[in-house]
What we know:
five-stranded mixed β-sheet, 11 strands, elongated
Amino acid sequence: MPELPEVETVRRSLAETVVGKVIDQVEVRWPKIIKYPEVEAFSFMIKEQKIEGMGRRGKFLIFYLNNFALVSHLRMEGKYGVFEASEPFDKHDHVIFYFTDGSQLRYKDVRKFGTMHLYPLGQELETLPLAHVGPEPFSEAYTVEYLYQALNKSARKVKPALLDQTIVAGLGNIYADETLFRAGVYPERICSTLTLDEVGKIYHASKQTLSEAIDAGGSTVRSYVNSLGRIGLFQLQLNVYGKAGEPCPVCGMALLKSKVGGRGTVTCRQCQT
């Protein structure tokens, strides 16, 4: 599933390619992707709307239109691409936005898990699915003190807590593993046992990891590409994710894979305590 760096990269590429375009009509080929409102209303409301800007909240893309905000979650395999009308469709193109200039924005989703919600401007952050999303890792609300208070009262393991989007927005499996490795914290530590110093290390590691991943265009570990069809390159900088059995880049001990909170997790038992 695309995480914050991948979604931010998609946002930036869409900002280059679709901002300023006017939607002539939309064709919904897989209605279940449209979660709100009903497909007929969705198609009517979005007609003749201009894309004024692109935003992101955690793992969600936000298309800011004249009067509405389109909230889009890519889930496992969702992709956006801009095409000319003459280019053939793919069988997995499930939502097609036709622009007045003749170009098209196509939403492709092999697994059909993606979602779209359309709300009047100003309501998108107050309504599900965004209403309960936690602070952005680069926002003023995300501080060491905030993270310590959020984790200190929890009896959960630290990795599942970091994956909880109500605590911090955008962290997923890849970047949680990388963050905890950099912080030297074992993912099965109980949150309430973490010291303020350890939480501070997690805080700084999360921001550093996400920032570097954004600069590299995200991580392409399966099929992720941005809306221009370009892969990410942060997978070349990963320390532990997907590297079970390989030597730890710090101490040389073989990295171990386990399951934490039902998610595959790679750690170094010597460097992470």
